[in-house]
Amino acid sequence: MNRKRLLSALALALCCCVPLTGCGTAAAMQATDLMKGVEKSAAAPAGALTDAGKTAVADFAARLFAACADGTENVMISPLSVLEALGMTAGGAQGETRAQMEAAFGLSSEELDAALAGWTAALTGNKKVRLGLANSIWLRDDPDLTVEQDFLQHNADVYGAAAYRSAFDGAAVRDINRWVDEKTDGMIDRLLDEIPDSAMLYLINALAFEAEWEKAYSRENVVAGAFAAADGEKQAKLMHGTEYAYLEDADTTGFVKNYAGGGYAFVGLLPAENVSLRDWIAGLTGEKLRALLDGEQQIKTYTELPKFRSAYETELSEVLQGMGMTDAFAGDRADFGAMGHYGTGPLFISAVIHKTYIDVSETGTKAAAVTAAGLCGGAPEETRTVCLDRPFVYLIVDTGTGLPLFLGCVADPTK
Predict the structure, then answer these.
(1) Which residue, 336, 319, 321, is CA-closest to 17?
(2) E-state strands within 167-245
(3) Residue 168: is its pLDDT beyond 90?
(4) Within this chain, do residues 286 and 332 fall inside the same structural domain, yes or no?
(5) Is the domain of 264 the same as that of 339?
(6) Is position 345 within any domain?
(7) DSSP state of 28
(8) Which residue among 116, 120, 188, 379 sits deepest, i.e. has the most Cβ atoms within 10 Å of its Cβ?
């Protein structure tokens, strides 16, 4: 599988399981809004992010990240974006297909719906934080394709999804890419180059995040320094600071740096000297991640963080099948009957594309996915130092839940 491309919306292509003939691209047409007149139901399920839900989300994030990252390249995923798109899709799954998806999530479909609704409802915003989350469903305008109204209503209720029917031609490619570009604030401007003749639906999530640091780095605290990449020493711009949130376990040290206004933070995690980035990622679990974040200590910590910008793209089909979702990708076994059907065969997932983008600088952080000197009297102050001058892991977390919106690693900040 080719996992390397570029980073941050997520699409699931659901296709007929038998070859299509005679259904080339139709004439360009304006997409029809299928959600026109579809409003959130008064009986829509309430959102609730329980502790069990947090544990499941953290575990899914750790397993997905470990499956995508081997520690040799810069990688970033958005667990929130992936779960939003897969949650929409699971709402149309039945039987063993649904059971396998739920096993991969660690939650039933209903529990995942509630957890995501509860999580997103609790996400905070302020004037210095831009957080955008959007979902959409795109359907081929084909008389043989039937999509269940209950499925559309469910996604309106739980995911606030828009839905469009259009000719899957060049105009549709432009429309989808324009939607992705708009919903990620231009950080990811393209999801598709073309639409295969076999593609029937795309379920897409887009996530955009932009925030300033609570304490920005001053110009004099940004200096050139060495970064010990696996393939040799590289010169990077290292931002020096002081934080009062230290993290540590048996093979990790780290720090937390808050974004302005509260509610979100950057977390830098450095594997111990005798632990490679590859081995650290391979040993990552949701329990380890939550324990690290919950174990924050208020200790003065001198930090170094390289400026970096990274774009990443991966196709997640093999990863998700490795997590147990096999039937969803098999044309002869997939059961998405609650979503709809195609005249000549059932629907199945043909591709899961995940793209992300991140830019960390002196002033703050932009990310998308389509993914002091004080003098006081008394005893000497305890201090720590965490210098991210060799391969490290990072997160952007919602501090209210302690869950990662983004999870990545930097093997080389110059790439």
Answers:
(1) 336
(2) 199-212, 222-229, 232-243
(3) no
(4) no
(5) no
(6) yes
(7) P
(8) 188
How far, rounded to the nearest angstrom, does the alpha carbon of residue 124 sit from its chain's CA centroid? 18
293, 180: one domain: no
Backbone angles phi, psi at 57, to 5 degrees: -65, -45
pLDDT 10s digits, 177-206: 999 999 999 999 999 898 888 888 899 999
204 and 225 together in one domain? no
Segment 11-31 shows an average pLDDT of 38
252 and 182, same domain (yes or no): no
Which residues does residue 240 pair with via DSSP β-bridges, in sequence order?
304
User: Does 96 reside within a domain?
Assistant: yes
Residue 52 to residue 187: CA distance in whole angstroms: 33
Instruction: Name the residue with tokens 């130092």.
Output: 385
Q: Do 198 and 345 share a domain, yes or no? A: yes
**Strand ranges (E), 319-389:** 340-342, 347-360, 364-369, 383-387
Q: How many structural domains is the chain composed of?
A: 2
Q: Who has greater pLDDT, 173 or 381? A: 173
Residue 410: strand pairing partners: 392
User: pLDDT: is 4 or 87 the higher one?
Assistant: 87
The structure tokens 């073309």 sit at 194
Grade residue 331 by pLDDT with cuts at 50, 70 and 90: confident
> Whole-angstrom Cα distance, residue 312 to residue 74?
8
Percent of the chain with pLDDT over 70: 85
At which residue do the structure tokens 């969803």 appear?
A: 328
Does 261 reside within a domain?
Answer: yes
HSE, side-chain direction, 13 A CA sphere, residue 177: 14
Indicate whether 29 belongs to any domain. no
Domain that holds residue 227: 219-306+367-372+380-410
